[in-house]
Each structure stands twice: as structure tokens, then as C-alpha cells.
Amino acid sequence: xxxxxxxxxxxxxxxxxxxxxxxxxxxxxxxxxxxxxxxxxxxxxxxxxxxxxxxxxxxxxxxxxxxxxxxxxxxxxxxxxxxxxxxxxxxxxxxxxxxxxxxxxxxxxxxxxxxxxxxxxxxxxxxxxxxxxxxxxxxxxxxxxxxxxxxxxxxxxxxxxxxxxxxxxxxxxxxxxxxxxxxxxxxxxxxxxxxxxxxxxxxxxxxxxxxxxxxxxxxxxxxxxxxxxxxxxxxxxxxxxxxxxxxxxxxxxxxxxxxxxxxxxxxxxxxxxxxxxxxxxxxxxxxxxxxxxxxxxxxxxxxxxxxxxxxxxxxxxxxx
Length: 320
Ligand code: NAD
Known about the structure:
Elements: E1 8-12, H1 17-28, E2 32-37, E3 56-60, H2 66-70, E4 78-81, H3 88-93, H4 95-116, E5 119-125, H5 152-172, E6 176-181, E7 184-185, H6 196-205, E8 210-213, E9 219-221, E10 223-224, H7 225-237, E11 244-246, E12 251-253, H8 254-265, E13 271-274, H9 289-295, H10 303-319
Parallel strand pairs: 1-2, 1-4, 2-3, 4-5, 5-6, 6-11, 7-10, 8-13
Antiparallel strand pairs: 9-12
Helix pairs in contact: 1-7, 4-5, 6-8, 6-10
């Protein structure tokens, strides 16, 4: 973990998919972890194996509630702001909450970090690039976002959060950085959250048709969660401010992804094409030169290994 060991970290959204992996990794490295989560889209089950560990504390609370943040006792030297509904199904169900956690939540988390003298990292997203007109996407690209479209609450929440981080650093001297995470997959994704990997894997395991949006020619570059966590912590341990892209290098069409999952699960399922969501980005691939050059980061877990681990986890949780 880049050699850096923090004494005590606050992770907002720590009971979510990526957040729970971050909690585990930091605990393993000897950092005490406080996970603040309102369970809007996360689950206590995601951190159940961490709860008995002495360095871990789960706090039920909302990152947009000033008392929840200021009321946490002790001092943190790392604040990772990951609270936010992240899948289209979730943020369209929670549109105002999504905007609030990007605005008020980010502001409060930044203030807590500054008060404690902590390093701060905002989980931003490739969605700030919208439906990109530049390919691959490098950090200097400003994006192509529809501010009133169905994805706008998420995209604009994160864009505003990025502006807040930048302003806080400039106006208050907060040691704050921005990571732009591209599509990440792995164990503890939620069945039914609408994202391609958990949807296809559960459909394949259940012998149902894999519902591919449109002709399935749209691409994503998926990154296994362990690699994403490595990237986030490498940024946290560095003096970089970002934004820094963290994402997988293998661009894949959704049709190809569905086929690989059918093959890997040995399922008899077929592909069924369904309507494509409005403003669904056509292509997505990160330019990760900055992360490679400044953080020494690159994804290590290949496709087959990452998908195998994910399918294994889903099979076990379906069986449980
Ligand atoms: P997730 O939905 O699994 O996790 C989000 C967590 O935040 C959940 O546990 C949820 O309960 C919690 N939360 C939401 N609003 C909250 C609030 N107001 N107060 C406290 N807790 C709150 O999603 P994820 O995929 O783990 O994403 C985590 C972060 O990473 C998000 O900020 C997301 O935007 C960002 N991100 C994720 C991806 C990805 O591919 N998974 C890609 C880009 C960015």
C-alpha cells in the first residue's frame, strides 16, 4: 500500500461496494477505520466480517448531517469521501440525496479533514466526462455532460464535488485530492443495482437471458476492485492533487462481456437485446498515463481472473 500507514481513517460510504474493500485493506495495513454510512445503497453485511475486529467501527449516519461528521470523536489522518449512490438505478431513485451528498456531504467531509489536518480523497467518476467526445479520456478533457438529462444528478454532483475540493484546497489549504474512478467490478456488488457485471452474472447463474442494452456495441473499461483500491490508496499516499484517472485498460463491448460471462459460468443463457438508456455513454476508456507515471499504478488483475473471482463470489452468495 505504497508504504504509507495511516493511524485512523474515516471512510464515508464504507459499507458500500468499493468502500467496504477500502475498509478491509486499510484495516489489514494496521489503520483504524471508522465507516460512516446511512445504508442508502450499502449494507451492513458488506462489513460484517470487519465488525469484530478491534480497529473497526461502523457508525450509522448521514454524510450530509453536520452532527454526524463533527460528532465523530478522535482525530483522523485520512478521510476518504466515498458516500454516494453510484449506479443509475440508485441515483435515479435518490436524485436529491445524490446531489446533497456531492455538495453538502463533500463540504462537510472536507471541513472535517481540514479540522483534523487529514489527507482527503474524493471518489469522483469517469461520469464527469459524460458521453465523451474525446477517446480515450485523459484528465484534461472537460467532458460532454447533459445537465438536465437522466444521469445529470450523478454527473453534476461529482462535478460540483470536484469544484468544491479544488476550492477548499485553494481557499483553506486542505490537503485534498480527486480520483476519477472508471467502472469497477468485483465481489460485493449488489444484484439488481443495474450495473452490467452483477446483472449479467446473476442472470447467467439463474439461467435467464442476459439483457444487453441496444446492440451491445457500447464499450466500458472495467477494473477489478482490488486494483481500484490500490489506485485510491496510492493517490492518498502521494502528494498529488489529481484529478487522476483510475480504471482498466481493456475496453470491451457489452455484448462481448455478456458472452464471456456466459462462457465462464457455463450457463445455457442467451443474450436478449433490450432498449438502451437515454444518454448512455457510447465509449469509455481511461487514459491512465498520469496514474502510471506519478503513482506507479497499473491494473494487475486480468479479465479472466477478476471475472472468475466475481462469479465465484456471486455463486457462493446465491447458494448461502
Ligand atoms: P455503493 O452504492 O455500493 O456505495 C455507496 C455507499 O455510500 C453505500 O454504502 C451507501 O449506503 C453510502 N451512502 C450514500 N449516501 C450516503 C450518505 N448521504 N451518507 C452516508 N452514506 C451514504 O457504490 P460504490 O460502487 O461502492 O461507489 C462508491 C463511491 O465510488 C461512490 O462515491 C461512487 O460515485 C464512486 N465510484 C464508483 C465507481 C464504480 O464503478 N463502482 C465508479 C466511479 C466512481
